[in-house]
Design a protein that fits this description.
The longest helix has 33 residues, at 4-36. The protein has helices spanning 4-36, 126-136; strands at residues 38-47, 50-53, 57-62, 67-71, 80-81, 83-89, 92-96, 103-107, 110-115, 121-124. The chain is elongated and about 65 Å long. It folds into two domains: 1-36; 38-136, no CATH class. β1 (38-47) and β2 (50-53) form a beta hairpin. Strands 1, 2, 3, 4, 5 and 10 form a six-stranded antiparallel sheet that branches. A four-stranded antiparallel sheet has the order 6-7-8-9, with no helix packed on it. The chain is 32% helix and 39% strand. It is of the alpha+beta class.
């Protein structure tokens, strides 16, 4: 019969392996985004049952031509171009929908919708978004 400390050591080892695995996945996504000049944002909407995760949005920036395109990886809609863009780099830019119905800004990697401002919509980290997505499966 194995001692308690050996069992705890094995459990700790498995937890450590799982944490390293998820960290590597996170680093891989971040490196891919960096190399492709892309950023993924994770929107959620406040409801009476908590925050509902919405479709991820990817933005690809072209600083040299001051262009930002966006698309929703989970949908079949084609990518669109934001209008009136000002781009310094992939983590610092601004732009708006062609019809002016929404304006967006990313400053030092923090994404926000500057018009119209709606407190029910927020942008969260990848991990928080996945946690919410999984938790909604059980509601």
């Amino acid at each position: 019969m194995k001692s308690l400390s050996v069992k705890l050591g094995v459990i700790f080892g498995y937890i450590l392996i799982i944490m390293v695995f998820f960290s590597l996945i996170s680093c891989k996504d971040s490196v891919e985004d960096y190399l492709k000049n892309e950023v993924t944002v994770y929107p959620v909407k406040e409801t009476d049952k908590g925050f509902l995760p919405l479709n991820q949005t990817k933005f690809k920036v072209f600083p040299e031509s001051q262009i930002v395109i966006y698309w929703y990886p989970a949908s079949k809609y084609p990518s669109q171009k934001l209008a009136n863009c000002s781009v310094r780099d992939r983590l610092n830019w601004s732009g708006e929908f062609k019809d002016g119905s929404g304006k967006f800004m990313m400053v030092n990697g923090n994404f926000s919708q500057t018009f119209p401002v709606n407190k029910k919509y927020q942008y969260v980290s990848r991990w928080e978004w996945w946690f919410l997505k999984i938790s909604w499966m059980f509601k």
